[in-house]
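Prompt: I keep going back and forth on a fold encoding question. Comparing notes only helps if you start from a blank page. Show me how you would write down a chain together with its backbone fold. Please set it down just below, with no commentary around it:
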Amino acid sequence: MALSSPGADSAAATTGASPEPDTAPAGGAGPGPARRGLLPLLLLGNSAMYALYIGVAGVLLALQVEDIDPANKVANFGLIAGVSAIFATVFNPVAGALSDRSGRRNPWILGGGLAAVPAMFLLGLADTILLITIAWCLGQAVMNVYQAAITSVVPDRVPLDARGKASAAVGLGLPFGSTLGALIGAAFSEDYRTGYLVFGALVAGAAVLFTACGREQRLPARAPMPVREQFAAFTSALRDHDFRWAFIGRALLVLGYFAVSGYQLYILQDHTVLPDGMKPEAAVAVLMPLTSVAMVVSTILGGYLSDRFDRRKLFVGASALLSAVALVIPAVSTSWTAMLCFAAVNGLAFGCYMAVDTALVTMVLPKAEDAARDMGVLNIANAGPQIIAPFVASVIVSFSGGYTALFAVAAVLAVAGALAVKPIRSVR
């Protein structure tokens, strides 16, 4: 999974960058009937994607790894998650570049979505840690073909004056998909092979519906940029003082967040004292909707209030500090009530952070004409920490003998992320 900034596609509107030719009718009029229909398709397509990511990686994969080698489940799961995240990070830009060169998105959405079914089938058949790693890497590869293409739909097909709504539809896919994924994962915890196929079918169905109902106009094919020029272009954004600190803050908070969330099932198994009769996978199905609702509420309120008071740094820093407070709760208490409080408070913190921090970043982009490219650089701060988070978490848990130290380290990272926005000069 490569977490994307919900508001990334609205960067061009914020900074004044121009859309690609043929991406929207002249004049930037409000969306017509086809575009109004595109928003629910974007919500559906992204929800299905996040449902697979959360349900597979957060529930079924963790159970499968535990069944094979219970004693080494933490280290094995960290290895699988880390290696597969590398595949995700590589395939996402490669697939995006290939779809750019073809001038089409729908074939890549359809191909990646349909390929999810055999990938999930193979994952269900895997019976060793090596085979699980290979199968999940294949799953990450095809899912990132799908993700790269569907992420590019907003700048391709939505006029500037409607990108805020489109970005909201994309962003809501995370809490909706997370809830759906947790519920499906819990329902098939005793039969994860069938559960894998359900997730594959869900993505494939969403891909078929999206490409059948979402009309596409072929765009001019884009010439590939030499690797040296691409590297120079990406690193130039990080030489800007304010953008660099925004990048660092995002990377620190995301690292702490995913170090904990990736091990949620094992935390519920080995750290939390659950109510009598409640299984850990059922607990995930309770916590994830709670977090998702909190995220939706704080995303809306955080965005509105930061606009109302024109204080981005205040809300970004406060939400990062609130995330640190949330992480302290399960560190000092192993009760189920503590985990419920953690899920709600962390959802409030992360939802507000992602909404307002994305707005902040759009205000510190070095050049308006490079807005889309520089938002892509920001997504390295999303994807990169997700690669190393499983390794970091497995080392901390293995050496400390428990999850208390993991919560403490994640809280420190959240505080560091809050402090990172202080040096930013151009935004209040």
